[in-house]
Fold:
Amino acid sequence: MTGRIRGGAPLTVGIDVGGTNIRASVVDADGEVLDTVTAPTPHSAKALDAALARTVRELRQRHDIAAVGLAVAGFVDAARARVRFAPHLPWEDAPVARILTAKLDLPVVLEHDANAAAWAEYRFGAAAGGHNAVLIAIGTGIGAALLVDGELYRGTHGIAPELGHLQVVPDGRPCPCGKRGCWERYCSGTALADTAIEMLATDPVTSTVLARDVIRDPGSLTGRRVADAAQDGDPLAVRVLADFARWLGLGLAFVSDIFDPDLVVIAGGVSTSSRLFLDEAREHYARSVTGAGHRPLARIRTTQLGEAAGMIGAAELARAALVTAEG
Structure:
């Protein structure tokens, strides 16, 4: 088995617990991924606990593992021990850390997936050197994380920040959170598809490509499909990406008005298409922030670590907790 490295620093496992798949990686103290296993995500809490334990045991057959960190898309308590609620996972007020610690005889810590990604980018990626930084993870919705003076800010109850659910349009599009007009309903992969469908309803001949997709199967249109069409020069898709850029810039202006970061990292699946919208979003942000033209602006970067960021961050946080516990 591969043991400790870099002056005795322990190897840890970071796990991205997604609604479809579990991805677990062995990560060293330099943030390098050494080994990865994947498995489908079960639909019951008991089966999910067992599947997570199996993935760690598989990695332990090849590596000397000292601790485990879980990146969870949901509400994690302030002690990073319980999952209060996760919309795409079967846990509800579940003591996940205690259950897995008992199964594995290893220390286990939990973290919100956006926080884990932000920590990875701060330690090893695009947020390195940031003093006060924001990570905006744009995928199906918006996940977010705040770094204040180089420390993750989780809020009193471990829930902060839910930036994707800032209301930007009163009585706007309905959101699964129960509100209407949330930022993520206009600035996400889902929003790209919804905006395209709305534009097609008023001007269907602008894009025969996307119109054909919607006619064939209204539910088949995805943000990725819209981005690909924009890349190919489809006029309606280009308009959709311009609308997306406007909402991203406006949202970043709201965040800057509240938090005044020096650095913003754009992550998540939509970030892979950043060349289609990021420059325009920067312009909207620069014009919309309070005091425009009379204040420094945050640097806006895209992720360096990509989809591995959550696993790397969870592993690094588990390593930090282990070092703290050891004294």
Observations:
- The CA atoms of residues 74 and 321 lie 21 Å apart.
